[in-house]
């Protein structure tokens, strides 16, 4: 299985480079007049990306074919500073011309179990599928210091192997309830990108790329796409313990 690795000097340089990659994907869909389904994550690196997209590509990109989803959401009000939707809305979505019907937010303010089921149905109704599993065209993930992605935390294999589309999770330290897309759906995506920055991520990156990962400890090691590959955008601090030619 191929993990494509791209290393950048700084988080800003990484965000600028990924924005170009993302815009090219959007423009290809626009040329074919195909709807494009993208699942966003929360976190500091996606936040940089949203700012680049809003500043440089708000006018030059036709966003009307893009459908925005989230890979996970905190169970908070949309206006809460913790909300992944709220962050994307403030930094990006309010600055681009995208039809409101194309913004498929997870309703963090609702009962988690009810919303996990509702959001699963919204995903089914608005994405393609392959092997009877929803297929996102593009999933953008961050990775925590513990190797989590979306809201799939270490030791929670249930969420990686679940047959459900969305599940309720809880942050292992704060206990904060979350709703997350499950591992099978993420691995079914057409393109998966990890955006990972900072030296605190370097030990986990080393174990994942050197195949030393004890899977139970590093959910991100489980991202093994059904088709194609996962592309890892790292800054040099996150990549400092692996050599540039690492691929696995
Ligand atoms: C969330 C995110 C989460 C995030 C990672 C990395 O809801 O918190 O979806 O999975 O992507 O924690 O976050 P940083 O990039 O800020 O380290």
Q: Using only CA atoms, what is the Rg?
A: 17 Å
The biggest sheet amounts to: 6 strands, parallel
Indicate the percent of residues in helices.
25-40%
Q: Look at the helices and sheets and give the structural class.
A: alpha/beta
Give the class-level CATH name.
Alpha Beta
Terminal Cα separation, in Å? 6 Å
- The string of secondary-structure elements, in order, is EHEHEEHHEEEHEEHEHE
Q: What report would you give on this structure?
A:
This protein has 248 residues and is α/β, with parallel strands linked by helices. The chain has a single domain, classed as Rossmann fold (3-Layer(aba) Sandwich), CATH 3.40.50.1360. It contains seven helices and eleven strands. A six-stranded parallel β-sheet has the order 1-11-10-7-2-3, with helices on one face. Strands 4-9-8 form a three-stranded antiparallel β-sheet. Helix 1 crosses helix 2. The relative contact order is 0.19. The model has no long low-confidence stretch (mean pLDDT 94). The structure holds 6-phosphogluconic acid. The site of 6-phosphogluconic acid has 14 residues, from helix 2.
């Amino acid at each position: 299985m191929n993990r494509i690795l791209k290393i950048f000097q700084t988080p800003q340089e990484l965000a600028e480079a990924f924005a170009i990659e993302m815009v090219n994907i959007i423009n290809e869909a626009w040329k074919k007049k195909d709807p494009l389904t993208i699942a966003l994550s929360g976190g500091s690196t996606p936040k940089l990306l949203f700012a680049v997209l809003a500043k440089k590509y708000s006018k030059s990109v036709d966003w009307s074919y893009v459908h925005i989803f989230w890979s996970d959401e905190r169970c908070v009000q949309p206006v809460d500073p913790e909300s992944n939707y709220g962050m994307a809305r403030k930094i990006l979505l309010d600055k681009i011309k995208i039809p409101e019907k194309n913004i498929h937010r997870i309703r963090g303010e609702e009962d988690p179990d009810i919303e996990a089921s509702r959001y699963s149905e919204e995903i089914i109704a608005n994405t393609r599928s392959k092997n009877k599993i929803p297929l996102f065209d593009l999933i953008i993930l961050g990775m925590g210091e513990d190797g989590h992605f979306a809201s799939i935390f270490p030791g929670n294999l249930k969420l990686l192997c679940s047959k459900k589309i969305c599940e309720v999770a809880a942050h292992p330290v704060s206990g904060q309830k979350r709703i997350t897309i499950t591992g099978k759906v993420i691995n079914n995506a057409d393109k998966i990108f990890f955006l990972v920055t900072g030296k605190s991520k370097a030990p986990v990156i080393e174990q994942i790329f050197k195949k030393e990962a004890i899977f139970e400890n590093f959910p991100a090691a489980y991202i093994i796409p059904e088709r194609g590959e996962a592309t890892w955008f790292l800054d040099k601090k996150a990549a400092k313990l692996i050599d540039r030619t690492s691929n696995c």
